[in-house]
Specification:
There is one protein chain. The protein is built from 11 helices and 13 strands. The protein is of the alpha+beta class. It folds into 2 domains: 98 residues, Glutamine synthetase, N-terminal domain (Ubiquitin-like (UB roll), Roll), CATH 3.10.20; 236 residues, 2-Layer Sandwich (Creatine Kinase, Chain A, domain 2), CATH 3.30.590.10. The strands form 2 sheets. Strands 6, 7, 8, 9, 10, 11, 12 and 13 form an 8-stranded mixed sheet that branches. A 5-stranded mixed sheet has the order 2-1-5-4-3, covered by helices on one side. The longest helix is centred in the middle third of the chain and has 21 residues. The radius of gyration is 22 Å and the shape is globular. The chain starts with 10 loop residues before the first helix and ends with a helix. The structure holds adenosine-5'-diphosphate (ADP) and manganese (II) ion (4 copies).
Length: 381
């Protein structure tokens, strides 16, 4: 196992010595027909993203054209060293904003190594326990679910940290900024902290083909939000995970840490959520949609505890009933109510159709788990 010598400090401080402008000199060199595919997958904690590069000889048209691959699962907490191979299957392709050109980012998921399975029997592959995408795919592929064309719009809140002190970016060393109030959707030095990263992320997502629908500064300084969606079915989870990967890569370049912790600073500071906006053919249908929404909410109420259990680690630190959250212990819903589990927009009862917002998921949500639960509860129960 590699160790970092204390003489050199952390890897972060070594990174600070590197000059990014040197890399830029080689970025536009021709690649002699080669294409770099960066395979990205979920590691063993369920919250970590891992990736490695595979060189291809031609441009793939779809994920099915991409070779199956494998990695050392003993190094990601996903397999024993004695039988360490984990199998990777490509699922979605995005343009790579870092390498540019024809290079791609690939969202992949992980399976037990095929022992005697021919390539045409991929359906017999067994997902490893941390492959949450697989169960999500099973639900999204259900005929009833497909017919309803479920759309998800996920609001990803996150907090930027000084990578050396691990304290929010731009906050006074060993101290706190002025109380919350001026920061949400703000502009100005000392208010909107870290916009360089937010802007770079927005452009990278557009380029990659991620359906990013907006960005805004959040209530706590150094906290930001972006939204991905509406995306149908599996695209929601795939795109949100890939947008997070892009954010981590930008953090690397700016030497800034990104945390998805649901309550990075205890006390009178807003936590970070991952609200999930949701609609289906039934809820979007004029006239009857509002009734369909009320039926779906009643189903969600019955499975509150199951949803909460899958809505993010440490969410109990955030869902206190304060700071624009609902209590974790009771289910509630309301029109325009930001203190409820589910918020229905003002226009929905008027238009008699539309979408609603599940405010319970925390910022570190696994979108495969959350979208699976919502589709399952509202469409299959
Ligand atoms: P908020 O008012 O809660 O801050 P945002 O504007 O941040 O809401 O996010 C709303 C999200 O809902 C966006 O990602 C948007 O694309 C998504 N959305 C819009 N219409 C629908 C719909 N019909 N179904 C699902 N999601 C939707
Ligand atoms: Mn090796
Ligand atoms: Mn929002
Ligand atoms: Mn928000
Ligand atoms: Mn919201």
């Amino acid at each position: 196992m590699a160790t970092v010598s204390p003489v050199f400090g952390t890897t972060q401080s070594i990174k600070g010595l590197l000059d990014h402008t040197i890399v830029d000199k080689f970025r536009d060199l021709p690649q002699n027909g080669k294409i770099a595919a960066e395979y990205v997958w979920l590691g063993g904690t369920g919250a970590d993203l891992r990736s490695k590069t595979k060189t291809l000889d031609k441009i793939p048209k779809s994920p099915a054209d991409l070779p199956k691959w494998n990695y050392d699962g003993s190094s990601t907490g996903q397999a024993p060293g004695t039988d360490s191979e984990v199998y990777l299957v490509a699922r979605a392709i995005y343009k790579d904003p870092f390498r540019g050109g024809d290079n791609i980012l690939v969202m992949a998921d992980a399976y037990e190594p095929p022992r005697q399975i021919a390539d045409d029997k991929m359906s017999e592959l067994k997902p490893i326990p941390t492959n949450t995408r697989f169960a999500c795919m099973k639900v999204m592929e259900d005929e009833k679910v497909k017919a309803e064309e479920p759309w998800f719009g996920i609001e990803q809140e996150y907090t930027l940290l000084n990578s050396v002190t691990k304290w929010p970016l731009g906050w006074p060393a060993c101290g706190y900024p002025g109380p919350q109030g001026p920061y949400y959707c703000s502009a100005g030095a000392g208010c909107a902290i870290g916009r360089e990263i937010v802007e770079a992320h927005l452009k990278c997502c557009y380029y990659a083909g991620i359906n990013i629908s907006g960005v805004n500064a959040e209530v706590m300084p150094a906290q930001w939000e972006f939204q991905v969606g509406p995306c149908q079915g599996m695209d929601a989870g795939d795109q949100l995970w890939m947008s997070r990967y892009i954010l981590l890569r930008l953090g690397e370049m700016f030497n800034v840490d990104v945390t998805l912790d649901p309550k990075p600073i205890p006390g009178d500071w807003n936590g970070a959520g991952g609200h999930c906006n949701y609609s289906t053919n039934s809820t979007r249908k004029e006239g009857t949609g509002w009734d369909a929404i009320k039926e779906q909410i009643a189903k969600l109420e019955k499975r509150h505890a199951v949803h909460i259990a899958g809505y993010g680690e440490g969410n109990e630190r955030r869902l206190t009933g304060k700071h624009e959250t609902s209590s974790m212990h009771e289910f509630s819903w309301g029109v325009a109510n930001r203190g409820a589990s589910i918020r229905v927009g003002r226009t929905v009862p008027v238009d008699k159709c539309g979408y609603y917002e599940d405010r319970r998921p925390s910022s570190n949500l696994d979108p495969y788990v959350v979208t699976k639960l919502i589709a399952e509860t509202t469409l299959l129960m």
